[in-house]
């Protein structure tokens, strides 16, 4: 009689679990760019945010969920969050060299 309720509840629980995992996952030591000095660093980059995203997608595939400029230990970079095979991975790309700082 109530066969559909269990399936809907399981799907909602999975979405809620994923949302909570993303919300409370430990933050990495990369801060979004907000200062004028950090903006100057990004202006001197050898690669753009779009190029960094393309490199990560080319190497790891998946769907980009978020990409933003950050500073890590005084260096300009990009934080790129990708979902692939049900897993969410976060990458840091050095803005001046284009190399992955943290896979």
Automatic annotation (TrEMBL):
Superkingdom to which the source organism belongs: Bacteria
PepSY domain segment(s): 47-100
Alphabetized UniProt keyword annotations: Signal
InterPro entries per UniProt: PepSY
Pfam families: PepSY
Transmembrane segments: none
This protein's record includes keyword Signal: yes
Signal peptide limits: 1-30
Record protein name field: PepSY domain-containing protein
Organism: Pontibacterium sinense
